[in-house]
Each structure stands twice: as structure tokens, then as C-alpha cells.
Amino acid sequence: MRSWSMPVGRLFGVDVRLHLTFFLLPMFIYWTEYSANKGNANGSRDLALAGIILACVAAHECGHMFAARRFGLIPKAVILLPLTGVTLYDEPRSEKSQTPALLWQREIRLALAGPLVNLTLACLAAAVISGTGRDYELWKWPFLSARNLPRSLVWANLYLAILNLIPAYPLDGGRVLRAMFSRTLDLSAATRRAVSISTAIAMVLIFAGPFSDLWLTMVGVVIFFAAQLEERALVFQSVLDNVRLEEVMLTDFATLSPADTLEDALEKAVHSLQDDFPVVRGSDMVGVISRQRILDALRAEGNGYVQAVMNKIFEVSMRQESLSSAFRKLTARNSSIIPVVEDQRLIGIVTLQNLMHSMALLAESRKLQRDETES
User: Fold this and answer.
1) Phi and psi at residue 353, to the nearest 5°
2) In degrees rounded to 5, what are phi and psi of residue 253?
3) CA separation for the pair 258, 279 (Å, rounded)
4) How far apart are CA 231 and CA 170, in angstroms?
5) Which helix (H) or strand (E) element contains residue 67?
6) Which of 149, 259, 271, 290 has the fewest CB neighbours in a 10 Å radius?
7) Whole-angstrom Cα distance, residue 60 to residue 360?
8) What residues form the annotated binding site for Zn(2+)?
9) Looking at residue 143, what DSSP letter applies?
């Protein structure tokens, strides 16, 4: 998610990220407007049209997020693509044990929420435009054009509502298709089948675009990237749920003493690859401290002792806990290190840095193993 997207803020407490493929949209709009108007294009209007589409996509995803909260799904992040979005949820264990019939009902309701928001906005925009008394030629082709932004606002919402009903995962129609597959397959297999169908649909649209409408090519590219993004998220979730901390924890690590001075601690940190350190007194762990915290304390207060600036409130985990459990503990306290203990004895550490590195390798390894099995 992080390698192909950039943060743009938070919406209702949810991280919002912009997928890098979104920057294809303003270039695509500029090129199509330039070609359609025989070399005349208006850069500011083209950017405004891209902004309208982005706002419509964001509204669509808000509809999904509000509906998801009613089912106990907690949105973690939303990634905005050129013509759709992908919302990542933290699903409670009680939800994971639901029957296929209940999951089917939930997916249908979630799928309808986004298009309904866009249809509502399209109707409101059309009503407001009609109320102004000006003729914006709502039914004149091309419906989506930078030369008529009010008309484009109406049709951008209509197009997004229709687009998301295509049975291509992760579009809303594709989510219903996956839910249908999940009645007879496990969720992982159902997702892979839905992604395969989506990839086929994307290829057809990409190659059909040059012979009919180039917007079809853009839709195909977006569906392809969105499907790959969802498949990647599925692999990572599998790693989170099934890999134990003992498989990825660091067992060869440096520790600090509360009696160490900050200058001594910084000297140890210089000769270590760790960014975070457990603070140990005898056989007891009494705190954690980061390299950055050591530097900040030295700059602000000069040399002192680790005990005075270490964080004394921290989470610990057992070696059999899953990576998803570790992630929840890290995010709950906005921490970057979790000590792993056994019989109240420190046996390893898991840092956010090594967790992300291990997850990436494990996800790639599982994807390769799955591809070999399927071939």
C-alpha cells in the first residue's frame, strides 16, 4: 500500500492515500481534451475535472465506510484510484466466523452503498443546476468534458455508479461476485477467482478502448491495478493471521540499562542496526526507548540517564501470538517496538521496521509458493 500510494490526510479518522496511478487521470484528460478540440485544451479546467472525479470517488468510498461501520467493520485506510477506491478494514474475529449467507447479505449491502451515494449526488447536482435556470445541456455528448464542469459533476457520479456495478473485483459488482464464490470456496480462493475474472475484464477493456472510446482503456487500467492491490492486501492479511511472532522476532538484539547515560546509549545505538531498544534492569524489562528519543533528549536537555526519558508504559507479547496481534498493539500505543516474553523473561523483540520487512518477504514467498502450486 505504501509503495504505490502517498498520504493526503485523514477523513473521519481514516487514513486517506492517493494511489500513484491517479496521476494518469489528469494527463489522460488533458490528452483527450487536446485531441477532441483540435489542439485546444485548458489546463486549469482539465485539473478541475480531475478534482471532480476524485471528489466523487471519495464520496463513493465514504458511503462504503459508513455502511461498513454498521456491520462492525473498522476502516483502517482508503486508497483513492483514478475511477474507484479501495478501503481496507480491520475485521473483528466475530465477523470472520459469520456464515456464507450472512457474508453474502453484508457484501450486497456494502456494495450498494457506494453507487447509491453517487446516484444521490448526481440527482442533487442535476436539481441544483436545473434550479439555476441556466442551460448546461445535461444531455449533450460528450457527457464528461472539461468544457462543461457542472454537467461533468452530474455524469461523473452517474458513470461511477454504473462502473462499480461491473462484476470486476474490487469494484462493487466484483465484491458481490466474490461473495457468491465464497459460498462454496474459502475467502482466499474466492478472492483469487474474482481477481482472475477482473484481470480478464480489464484486458478486454484496455484493448477495446482504442477501437471505441479511450475511456474504456482508462477503466481497464484502473480495474487491473485495483485488483492487484486487493490481491496483495489479501496475501498480507494471510501473513498477519497465520505467522507467529516467534517466526520473525529478533533474538540477537542490543539492550540498554536505565543507568546508562544518554551519550552512552547513543554510542551503542550508532553501532547497532536497531532503531528501538528494550531497557533492562537485571532480568526485568523496565522500559523502551528509540534512537530518535535519545537524540531529542540530548538536544533538549543535554546528557542525562536513560531512566529519565524512557517510555515506561509498553505492550508485551507472547511468542505464539500472530503478527496481526502485534500490529494491533503497535498501533494502539503508537509504538514501534514490542518485547516478546516467555515466563516473564525477555526472549526477543519485534520492531515495526523488522515487522514490515519480514511481512514483505513472507508475502512474496507465499505468493511464489501459491503460483508454483497452481501451475
Assistant:
1) -65, -50
2) -145, 160
3) 6
4) 9
5) helix 43-70
6) 271
7) 30
8) 60, 64, 172
9) S
List average pLDDT for each run of 10 residues in the chain, which is 375 residues long. Answer: 75 84 84 72 83 92 88 82 79 54 78 92 92 82 84 93 89 87 81 89 91 85 83 73 81 89 89 85 84 90 90 85 79 77 82 71 67 62
pTM score of the predicted model: 0.67
| The three grid cell numbers given for residue 92, joined into one nine-digit string | 473483528
Q: Are residues 54 and 129 in the same domain?
A: yes
**159 shares a domain with 53:** yes
The number of distinct structural domains making up the chain is 3
CA–CA dist 32, 207 (Å, integer):
17
DSSP assignments along 122-175, one per residue: HHHHHHHHHHTT----TTSSSSS-TT-HHHHHHHHHHHHHHHTTSS-TTSHHHH
What is d(CA 41, CA 331) in angstroms, rounded to the nearest whole number?
A: 46
Query: Could you tell me if 160 and 26 lie in one domain?
Result: yes
200 occurs within a structural domain = yes
∠ CA 185-321-74, rounded to 5°: 60
C-alpha cell at 369: 509458493
